[in-house]
C-alpha cells in the first residue's frame, strides 16, 4: 500500500472512529424507545439546521450532482438545485413550526403516528399504511447510500465493491443502533462540516489543476449548451439539446419532495424550542444554496481537468466518481495533500452516512413503533421496544445492502425515485394536515395510496412513452394526491368534533 493510501485511510479512520465514539457516548441517553427515535425533543437550532440538511443532501450532493453536471452541463442540475433551494426554504418557513407544534399537541413521535392522531384514526390503518410507504421507499434510498460507499472504496483502492459497501454500511448501523436519533443528529452536524470542507478543498485544487478559472470556463463555453440554462449538453453527439419549459417545471418539482420527507420532518419535531426554528431556517437555507452551487461547479471543473488530461473522461455512472478521482490525484502531492484527500473522501462518506442513519431510524421506527405497537397492538416493555427497534434497523440495513449489490447502479436515479415516492405519498398529506380543517382520514389515506402508486405507474409505464409524458414522476403523483384528498374528503363524512376542536387548538397556538 502506498504512502498516499495510508494517509487517506488515516483520515477516514479518524472520521469513522469519531462517528462510532459519538454513538457509544449517546447510547446512555436513550432511556426509552421515544428517546431513541426523537431524542426527547432536545435539539438546538444549529444542530437542527445542519442535521436536517446533511440528512437531506446524501451522497447525491458529492456524487450525483457533480456527476450530472460533469456529463450534461449545468442546465439539468441547476434547475434541480433551484427547485430544491425553494423547497428547502418553504419547508422551513411554512411547515417546520407547525409540524413541531402539532406533534407536541398530539404527542406524536413518528410521522405515521401523527397522521393517525391528527385524523382520529383509532384503528391505526392510516398509521400502518404510512409505515409501509416509509419502508418501501426508504430501503432503496438507504441502498443508494450504501452503493455510494462501495463505489468510493472500490474506485479508490481497487477493493471488492460488495465488501467495501458492507463494511461501510456496518459502521453506519453500529453507531445508529447504539445512539439512536441523538447520535444521528450530532454525527450529522459533524458530517455537514466535513462535507463543507470536502467541497472547498476539491474546488480549490480542481481549479488550480485545470489551469485556472479562465481555462475551466473556456473549456465549458466551447461545448454546445454546456453552460446554458435552456439547453442540455449531449456528450455523444457533441451538441446542445433543448431543455423545454415543461422539463424545467418537471425538474424544479424536486422541491415538492421536501414536504413529505420523514427524516427531515423529524428534525423539525425534535427542536427544543420552536422559536429557534427561524435561526435554523436561515442557517439551513444558506448552507443548501451554497453547497449545491459549489457541487455543480465542481462538475464543470472536473470536465476542465479532463480537458487538461489530469483525470480520464468518465462516462455513464462513472461520472459520479469525479470527486473521488480528484481526491486520488490530490493524494499524489505529498503527505499533507494525501491527508486532505482523505478529508474529501470522508466528506463523501459523511454525505452518505448522514442520510443513511436517518433513513434507517425512520424505517425501523415504522416497523417497531408504527406496525408492531401501533397497528397490531403488540404490547412490550421499554427494553423489548428498544431491542426490536435495533433489530429492525439491522434487518432493514441488510435488505438495503442486498439491493445495492450492483456496482453499476446510479446514485442519482435511485435517489430521484425514492424522493418522488415520499414527496408524492406524504407531501400533500402533511400540508392538508396543517392547513385544511375539513380534511379527513379517508381523504388522506386515499391520497397517500394514490400518490405512492402513481410514482410507480408514471415511472415505469407512462414516462417511457416520452414526449409530454417525459416528466419527473413526483409532479403528476403529487398533484393527483392533492386532487384525491380534496374529492374524497368532501365526499365522505366531516371529521369528528374532537378532531376539529384539536385543529382549532393547534391554530390558536400561532402561525
Characterize the structure shown:
With 511 residues, the protein is mostly helical. It has one domain (3-403): Up-down Bundle (Sodium/glucose cotransporter), CATH 1.20.1730. Helices cover 75% and strands 2% of the residues. The protein is built from 18 helices and 2 strands. The chain has helices at residues 3-26, 33-38, 45-72, 75-105, 111-118, 125-157, 161-209, 213-221, 245-252, 262-270, 277-307, 322-330, 335-375, 382-403, 411-435, 441-462, 474-491, 497-508, and strands at 231-234, 239-242. The protein has a two-stranded antiparallel ribbon. Helix 3 crosses helix 13 (335-375), helix 4 (75-105) crosses helix 10 (262-270) and helix 12 packs antiparallel against helix 13 (335-375). The longest helix is centred in the middle third of the chain and has 49 residues, at 161-209. It is globular and about 70 Å long. The relative contact order is 0.19. The mean pLDDT is 86.
Briefly, what is this?
By secondary structure, this protein is an all-alpha fold. It has one domain (3-403): Up-down Bundle (Sodium/glucose cotransporter).
* Beta strand %: under 5%
Q: What would the principal axes of the Cα set say about the shape?
A: globular
The domain count comes to 1
The level 1 CATH classification is Mainly Alpha
Core attributes:
511 residues, mainly alpha, Sodium/glucose cotransporter
Give the topology, please:
Elements (H helix, E strand, L loop, with lengths): L2 H24 L6 H6 L6 H28 L2 H31 L5 H8 L6 H33 L3 H49 L3 H9 L9 E4 L4 E4 L2 H8 L9 H9 L6 H31 L14 H9 L4 H41 L6 H22 L7 H25 L5 H22 L11 H18 L5 H12 L3
Antiparallel strand pairs: 1-2
